[in-house]
Amino acid sequence: MAHDLSDYRKSYEKRELLEDNCPENPIELFRDWFFTADESELVDEANAMTIASIGLDGFPKSRVVLLKKYTWEGFIFYTNYNSEKGKAILNNNHVCLSFFWSSLEQQIIIKGKAEKLAENLSDGYFESRPDGSKLGAWASNQSEVVTSRNELDNNLASFERKFENQDIPRPKHWGGFLVKPVSIEFWQGRPNRMHDRIRYTLQKDFSWKLERLAP
């Protein structure tokens, strides 16, 4: 079966990205773009991002996770450290994050190094989660093969009974990663495929070098 997509076309004409409008620190530009996406009625879950890692099998793998916080230091998300994703990152902490807001014709690509978030910070976020999400972190051995949906439901019911009428603690195998960026590229769609691409690269003195890339 073949499906030819060569005639698919879209003209990008909504915005431009010029060096004169770029701040010295890319986190400022990320903040501005994210705020616009988050406020837009056309963007659903502006904090949804793709994270790519190199698996233990040597293959790259991408999946969508939710950004939970960003600071001047980097980008924070949470996961099961024993999952396929968690093991991959702990084995090779070089990762790539990307955001694509198609309605704004914008993309951000972040290369960085991931490190485990401090336990007290993971505790604080875990405490803010609904009880159902907390129980799910206990009940799901993420990425492991299961026999059926019933196995998952039974696991959840077991932990519901275990933690009934008490605070649900954070599992030690669950927590946050902080991705410290080494480069951040901002992509703005433009007509005739002459897109704007501005890349910031972290220098040894922790300043950022700004360069325009050909589309």
UniProtKB/TrEMBL annotation:
Cofactor note: Binds 1 FMN per subunit.
E.C. number: 1.4.3.5
Residue positions binding substrate: 9-12, 68, 125, 129, 133, 193-195
A Pfam family of this chain: PNPOx_N
PROSITE patterns: PYRIDOX_OXIDASE
Domain Pyridoxine 5'-phosphate oxidase dimerisation C-terminal: 174-215
Biological process per Gene Ontology, one example term: pyridoxine biosynthetic process
Record SUPFAM superfamilies: FMN-binding split barrel
Cofactor: FMN
Domain of life: Bacteria
The keyword Signal appears for this protein: no
InterPro entries (alphabetical): Pyridox_Oxase, Pyridox_Oxase_CS, Pyridox_Oxase_N, Pyridoxamine_oxidase_dimer_C, Split_barrel_FMN-bd
Binding site for FMN: 63-68, 78-79, 85, 107, 142-143, 187, 197
Pathway membership, UniProt: Cofactor metabolism; pyridoxal 5'-phosphate salvage; pyridoxal 5'-phosphate from pyridoxine 5'-phosphate: step 1/1; Cofactor metabolism; pyridoxal 5'-phosphate salvage; pyridoxal 5'-phosphate from pyridoxamine 5'-phosphate: step 1/1
Reaction(s) this enzyme catalyzes, per UniProt: pyridoxamine 5'-phosphate + O2 + H2O = pyridoxal 5'-phosphate + H2O2 + NH4(+); pyridoxine 5'-phosphate + O2 = pyridoxal 5'-phosphate + H2O2
Keywords per UniProt: Flavoprotein, FMN, Oxidoreductase, Pyridoxine biosynthesis
Residues of the Pyridoxamine 5'-phosphate oxidase N-terminal domain: 40-151
Gene Ontology molecular function terms on file: FMN binding; pyridoxamine phosphate oxidase activity
Assembly information from the UniProt record: Homodimer.
The protein's role, per its UniProt record: Catalyzes the oxidation of either pyridoxine 5'-phosphate (PNP) or pyridoxamine 5'-phosphate (PMP) into pyridoxal 5'-phosphate (PLP).
Family label: Belongs to the pyridoxamine 5'-phosphate oxidase family.
Entry protein name: Pyridoxine/pyridoxamine 5'-phosphate oxidase
